[in-house]
Amino acid sequence: MDESVRVTLEDGDESDVVRIRGTADEVTVGDATFRFDIGGPDAEQGEPDGGIVVDGAADADAEVEPEPKADENDRRYVAPADAVPDRGTLRFEATAGRRRVDGILQRLDDEGIVAWENSCPHKPEVQLDRGLGALIDGDQLVCHEHGARFNCDDGYCTRGPCRGRSLSPIDVTVRDGDVFLTDDRFEAGQRLD
Ligand code: FES
């Protein structure tokens, strides 16, 4: 490498800016010594070069903060789809101004993820998921209070004190592995569990 490269090194409260030339060298800041090899050990094995391999950062804080996923900044983002359990539900909150509605995300075998209000039609104050996931029995969701059974795919109650009524749906979609609200009644979503 003919050109020099400027590198900023940080170790605790200390930082230093150094210029490096050549393809392999070592630089020191504070108590830490960084050995680097531009192109890396795989360069000779046909791997693309141009990277800087840093080795031996024994005392330095070399942790790299992951970039937040852009979609997580979307106010209608609810949760990663893979956080929704196969058997059970994941709680979230949908908001519109000061109005807040508790919801649950539920996975269907081949049909993605659906969402319902976290409330039993028999007694709306009863939450289907109290924090550990709603009861799922086969292809039905069961209210723990009096045993009402609801079809997982359409929310229809087939048995129990609210037979013939249905869970209240909340519209969601899965995009690039994440669940987003698509329900026009709400402005924002937030995972609760
Ligand atoms: S509160 Fe759900 S069945 Fe009674």
UniProtKB/TrEMBL annotation:
Keyword Transferase carried by entry: no
Gene3D superfamilies per record: Rieske [2Fe-2S] iron-sulphur domain
Keywords per UniProt: 2Fe-2S, Iron, Iron-sulfur, Metal-binding
Family matches, as InterPro entries: Rieske_2Fe-2S, Rieske_2Fe-2S_sf
Region (Disordered): 38-73
Keyword Iron appears in the UniProt entry: yes
Ranges in coiled-coil conformation: none
SUPFAM superfamilies given in the database record: ISP domain
N-terminal signal peptide: none
Single GO molecular function: 2 iron, 2 sulfur cluster binding
Cited PANTHER family: PTHR40261, RIESKE DOMAIN-CONTAINING PROTEIN
Name of this chain's protein: (2Fe-2S)-binding protein
Organism, scientific name: Haloplanus aerogenes
